[in-house]
Amino acid sequence: MITRVTVYPPLDWWQAVADTIKANGTGDQWVRMYGVKGYVDGSLGSTTALLYGTYLDDRHSHGQQVTSTADLRNWIAGADSAQLQVVVHAIGDSANGLLLSIFDSVAKLHGERDRRFRIEHAQHLNAAEIAAIARQHVIASMQPMHLVDDGAWAGKRLDMARLQGTYAFRSLLDSGAVLAFGSDWSVATIDPLWGIYGAVTRRTRDGKNPDGWIPAQKITVDEALRAYTAGNAYGVFREKEVGVLRSGMLADIAVLDHDLLTMPPESLATARVATTIAGGKVVFRR
Q1: Which of 25, 116, 223, 236 fits a disulfide with 219 by CB distance 3.0 to 4.6 angstroms?
Q2: pLDDT 10s digits, 121-176
């Protein structure tokens, strides 16, 4: 094996997943299964992200809820009762609001524990939802590379007032929330250096936002690196094994050909991985 994988089968399989883990454990150091994944809505690009208001270019549509509220409540409650981690796709502001409400009610029902509910994407948020993510200790699992594309066309879907909470990295960190960055591959490139570039510069592919699209939500290189490393490790309950360079941790290391902390932010995506070490063994060398 050359990469570590955490598997999340469908949310409605929660009972089978719980039974499998009870019988066989969560896995080994390379492949583990901790929980399940569900969906609230679709995507902004297809006008199926679930919104409080309507789309600018489709005044009859609020988007689409792809899993009923009753099913979401029942399956999330069932999975949580079985001590599984629950991660759920939510992109629109209404989808995120609904999901946070369900997370909150399930947590209160079953009592305090280290459950680490995760929202996959958390793409469009308002101030109340940003505060709730931090207050409820929900992990915002986000993909900054998407904003490099979305910033070129999202204005035809949402007005600028609603876009202020789009990819709200700065507001989430300032509120005390945990960010875990990923790629959403194969929808976007798997290269994390492009994601770091997107989070730090917020420049868009069309070149029309040289100072950043919604620049108030920019974060630093160090903050983006932490989201891709320590944040991800925390997001899968592995912060005691991976995510930082420290004695006693598993030796998973990427060596780059540039120092991201000193190179110009607009050049971040030009850095390249020179060597990759997994479990103390070199698995890639450029």
Answers
A1: 223
A2: 999 999 999 999 999 999 999 999 999 999 999 999 999 999 999 999 999 999 99
- The total of structural domains in the chain comes to 1
Tell me which residue range forms the domain holding 48: 5-245
- Dihedral sign of CA atoms 267, 199, 195, 187 in order: negative
Dihedral sign computed on CA atoms, order 54, 213, 141, 112: negative
Output the DSSP codes for 188-222: S---HHHHHHHHHH---TTS--TT-SSGGG---HH
pLDDT score of 267: 97
In this prediction, residues 45-70 reach a mean pLDDT of 97
pTM of the predicted model over 0.85 = yes
d(CA 23, CA 51): 41
Torsion of CA 116, 253, 149, 167, to 10 degrees: 30
Per the prediction, the chain carries an average pLDDT of 97
**CATH code assigned at 115:** 3.20.20.140
Whether 258 is covered by a domain: the verdict is no
276 within domain boundaries:
no
